[in-house]
Each structure stands twice: as structure tokens, then as C-alpha cells.
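Morning. Coffee machine broken again, so started the prediction first thing and wrote up yesterday's gels while waiting. Chain of 123 residues, entered below exactly as on the submission form.
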Amino acid sequence: MKKTIDYYLSLPYRIEIIPDTAEGGYTACFPDLPGCITCSETMDGIIQNAQDAKKAWLEAALAEGIEISEPSEDDSLTKYSGQFKLRLPKSLHRLLSVHAKEEGISMNQYCIYLLTRNDALKA
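Came back before lunch.
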């Protein structure tokens, strides 16, 4: 059976979003799709650009007959739900909410950005 673009787009490819601390904005890549990378000035923009880049990469690979890997099975990720609850002081909650509003994103997205930025320093 020949796999279509819709088949590959339906697969849960892992995306990595990295803030560019030197020049601002964000870079996104899909580790299972070599060379599939994009950038944007905003968090909302990087999500849309990443989906567009993934689609363009998959279309080009299909047109050129390049083998497309399916998402890697990372057993270490299957035990995590992607959710956790965090209690924090009201003053910090307010500060995070204000900063997220200034950036034009949800507080959830802002916290993910902060966690990603700081975690990248450990890598």
C-alpha cells in the first residue's frame, strides 16, 4: 500500500521548539524528519510555520521518492501524560499571567516557553 501525504500528516511526529536567545524568535524542528526546520518571531507563528514546514518536507520527500521515517517509538515518553499540576504563590501566578498577556500568548504557552528556554541551558 502506497502511503499518502494525509497518512504521514496524521502521524504524531515529535516537534522541538527552541527559543533563539541571541536574536529573538523561535526555531522548530522535527527530529524524525532530517532537515525539516523553520523559524518564527512568535510562539503562535512557530506552531503554524512548523506544521507548514512538515507538510512541505513530506510532500517533497514523497515527490522525490525519499524514504520517510515514521515517528520513532520512544518508550521513555509513553509513561508521561504531558501534564502536571503546579501550585505557586499568587504573586508569581499574577506575574506570569501579565507577562503572557504582554507576549500575546496564553499563560500555559508562556510557561512552556520559560521551561523550554531554561531546560535548553542544561543541554
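Residues 1-72 form a domain with the Double Stranded RNA Binding Domain fold (CATH 3.30.160.250). Going to sketch it on the whiteboard this afternoon.
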